[in-house]
Amino acid sequence: MAESAGGSRAVPGFVVLREVEQGHWYVVGEVARRPGLSAQAARAQAIKDATSGTPDEGGMYAAVLRSEWHIAQQF
Q1: Of the four, 2, 56, 67, 69, which is 20 to 30 A from 12 by CA?
Q2: CA atoms within 13 A on the CB side of 29
């Protein structure tokens, strides 16, 4: 795990996005990764957590690792 600016270890988590129209995404929120789940199950759980358990029917969601999200913003 990477260290945060304060020197402590960063908590793994996800940034959850919802597609509002084709090619346009809205940040729903950030949630901690639940330990003990497979990668796919952890992403599905992150979407449930970010939407308070009620994702929109037929909505398109993405759960991106928080560390990847921060790296992508550097470019």
Answers
A1: 56
A2: 11
